[in-house]
Design brief:
The structure is a homodimer.
Chain A (H helix, E strand, L loop, with lengths): L2 E7 L3 E7 L5 E8 L6 H19 L6 E8 L2 E3 L4 E5 L4 E4 L1 H9 L3 E5 H12 L8 E6 L3 E7 L2 E2 L31 H5 L1 H12 L6 H9 L4 H9 L3 H25 L3 E5 L7 H14 L9 E4 L6 H14 L1
Parallel strand pairs in A: 1-4, 4-8, 9-12, 12-13
Antiparallel strand pairs in A: 1-2, 2-3, 5-6, 6-7, 9-10, 10-11
């Protein structure tokens, strides 16, 4: 039985899965990304992980049809080059060609948010849906636009960069992209932390203040946890992010008219505290007919979506 | 030599062209739309126009391969039904089937803004471009999204409804769609008129005031004309529309990453008075890489784009 390697290369960790032809992960492993050691060290670690994953699983290389890899990068798909990999500090690297040379099998590269979208389409929340918009709410906000069952890349691979839609034209926070008021500066995990650090100064007691006193900082995970426990300031912060997201999704829906919108990433763990205000804002801002049959649902595959979607890239070629 | 009928059915007039296989209009005619007389009167007039167009041009019905028709409607493409034709007051009419029954040849229907986009792609400003976004700035604002050389319809035919993107969440004007602050309430010909009527009260002399005194009203055409002659209030009004459009196009560009954005419709006649502030706002609001190679250009086909694009629908089928 043939299988695929699905790889999710991020700024924090490298996740690798052995994925079967139905999109199930048979075995997987995760290692911290040696960012500081540079491109060749990362390449070497990816190779070592593949060797050891195969050894552990009892699969031979001849049973692997190919590998897919999702990367937080702008990709030139015509040339197969990672033009810019912000979190890793790489420019113009030929990851696809380098891995093909190493492994003597087809390797496909894709943007990480797009890979996650494909994973959700293959075996997750978007199973069977062919017009799909997928947002990943993490440190940043990634988007994947699926049209007729395929990722839509646009003119130079930048389609679906939903995180960089301007949502606050005046007085927005500074974004990694060099501009201000992008969706990801106002509604990502990072935005939630900034909001919480601003709000914690105004309050003198309670669990948010205690957490801040104890650890000297706040994380999105903490804010979400406290919100789920009913802490009102944290609930407000999450609701604000939900409202901003709902308004943005209404704009995206007028343009793309998807069948389904899948919301994944760490922030989506907030559940109804995020989704209720999000859907409320969406419904009041969207052109009714453009949203007639759209469903807005949480992602199902968690942090495995990227591996599964990366594997789909080679699965699709093999069909 | 085979040819096509290209029809642009609007709330004001019906335009019909005999279009050759290169997208040239050989003969054409225009009649006011008998809106008040209802669907069957319109259908009858369309048939009469076709008969007389063929007679005039010396073409026989056997030399016509089919007809395409653009309609300002939400269309159910699976069922071939015009779900809602706002300007004509029709609901759930089977225009395609009715014309096929009448003419015994293939008939294709499309949304009017989409037809205009296809026309510009076939022989106009977007010739040879396959990832194209086209906006038509008229009484309303229509949008057409072309992906891989085809109109993208989305889940229920509503993709590209750029006119109903919310651009003014608070205090926007009421839109036909029932909501407020849509792109078309803030930057269409109608918006320009509303702006001018508001501004004319503040000024006591000058050509705008004179025109208003003389005619008792203002039109977008007048405002554009005066702006081109240097009237400062009119220039400001057009520039404001340009800025709003530029900001919205930046959002659309992050999602769709088109190769080209074509701007047509009456308002685009304002030329650089519109395009300069539009491009300035676009450049400062857009994710740089998403706009790297995009060109924003005026449409070329004027009010013939709809006929030519409608003809393309049957031309494409004949390929």
């Amino acid at each position: 039985m043939k299988a695929y390697l699905g790889i999710d290369l991020g700024g924090t960790s490298i996740k690798m899965g052995l994925v079967d032809q139905q999109g199930n992960i048979l075995h997987n492993m995760e290692n911290p990304t040696p960012v500081k050691e540079g491109y060749h060290a990362v390449l070497k670690l990816i190779d070592q992980m593949a060797q050891s994953l195969l050894r552990q699983s009892g699969y031979a290389w001849r049973n692997i049809s190919g590998a897919g890899i999702g990367v937080p990068a702008f990709i030139d798909f015509q040339k197969g080059i990672l033009v810019e990999v912000v979190n890793l500090g790489w420019h113009n690297v030929s990851l696809q060609a380098d891995l093909e040379r190493l492994w003597h099998m087809p390797v496909m590269v894709e943007n990480d948010a797009n890979a996650a979208a494909l994973g959700e389409m293959w075996t997750g929340a978007g199973k069977g849906v062919s017009q799909l918009l997928c947002l990943t709410l993490g440190t940043g906000i990634g988007g994947g636009v699926i049209i007729n069952g395929e990722i839509y890349h646009g003119a130079n691979g930048t389609a679906g960069e939903a995180g960089h839609i301007t949502v606050k034209p005046q007085g927005g926070r500074v974004c990694n992209c060099g501009r201000t008021g992008c969706l990801e500066t106002e509604a990502s995990a990072t935005a939630i932390v900034v909001d919480a650090l601003e709000r914690v100064r105004e309050i003198s007691a309670g669990p948010l203040q205690e957490e801040f006193q104890r650890t000297g900082t706040l994380t999105a995970r903490t804010v979400i946890q406290l919100a789920r426990q009913g802490e009102p300031v944290c609930r407000e912060i999450i609701a604000k992010a939900g409202t901003i997201l709902g308004n943005s999704l209404a704009v995206m829906c007028c343009l793309l008219n998807p069948e389904m919108i899948v919301i994944g990433g760490g922030v989506s763990q907030a559940g109804t505290i995020l989704f209720d205000p999000l859907i409320k804002a969406f419904n009041s801002a969207v052109l009714p007919r453009a949203a007639e049959n759209v469903s807005i649902v949480p992602a199902k595959l968690g942090n495995q979506a990227g591996m599964i979607g990366a594997a789909w890239l080679v699965h699709r070629q093999a069909q």
